[in-house]
Amino acid sequence: MRTSLLGIGLTLGIAAAIATSSGCGGDDSNGNNGEGTDGGSDSGGGGGTDSGGGTDSGGDAGPKIGGNAILTSLSTTVNIGGTPTPVRVLRPVVGFSAIGAVHHQYSDGQTFGCSADHFDVGQNLGSDSNAGNIKITKYSSANFLNGQKAPEEINCAIVTNSGLSLYQCGYGPLESGKPGQVSINTPYPGSADLVKNNQVIHVEIAGGSDVGAIDTAADLVAVGSPQVTEDLATIKYDPAKDMTLHLTCPGDACGYVTAVNVVANQNTPDTFDQPSPTSGAITCTFLDSSQPIVVKKEAIAAMFGSDAAIKSVQTSVVSFGLPIAKSDANGNSISFVAGGGVLGVAPR
Q1: DSSP for 112-157?
Q2: Can you give the pTM of this predicted structure?
Q3: pLDDT tens-digit map of 218-238
Q4: The domain containing residue 298 runs over which residues?
């Protein structure tokens, strides 16, 4: 999986919880499934939910491909010049893989529930299947924190590094087939309203060697961001205790699905995005945002493993609008969702 240069990351496996889809985890410079250095988009696998069985509408031999194309708007606080500063970051989550290809060290076996993994040196969840270039538009126009106007499109493409081929995203058009120079991690002011309730987000999949062209047209509708009662910058995960999170939503803006992603690594909170020899992840999806979210102690234990070197834990909580699933001409099914959330990094 990858996290941003601000320590902002998201790995979601909406997958079987929404449709027959999954994603692949990224790698760091050591080739493990830890935190990347390029700040590329999370591919939706390291700690993502298993894609499940799915249906083969074509009846031909060979597995179908599933995947996620997700847009999230995350709020958090980072240190800028020694001052804690509220910021917001627009984060795509893109990843594709063969149905049933992702298996987890822990899964509660529920369609809506949690899965977890711990990754030692050299471990990863494989490369992304090729769906061609991904273009995301129709998010709200705003200026970055530095005053620069943000480009009005995000493009994602497969980049090969250390033997793994994974989707990375950047602002603006692709440059020589790769994401542009404006980093997807560039922060906006904390007040920026990038993905609003009932906003239509447009995603275009160009199609590649594994997945054909798909266009969401006007079907993908986002929701606003929830608030979390717990302080995600001080939260403590104990493998002997369940963790309970409580959500509130502005107005009636909470969506149909709430996703919780927890990532642990060996870095301090201020350097969380840097490469880590080992890491762990939990991904949970829930249907009812009015109820407290419970992350089981068994998932927490699986994330940590017996790794005493883990120093920090990053938690993101995101609410998504009505998920849509669209298929290409070969019956490969891709899930699309858009929404907002909050993120924090805490010492272990």
Answers
A1: SSEEEEEE-TT----PPP----EEEE-SPP-B-TTSPBPPSEEEEE
A2: 0.80
A3: 999 998 888 899 999 999 999
A4: 15-347
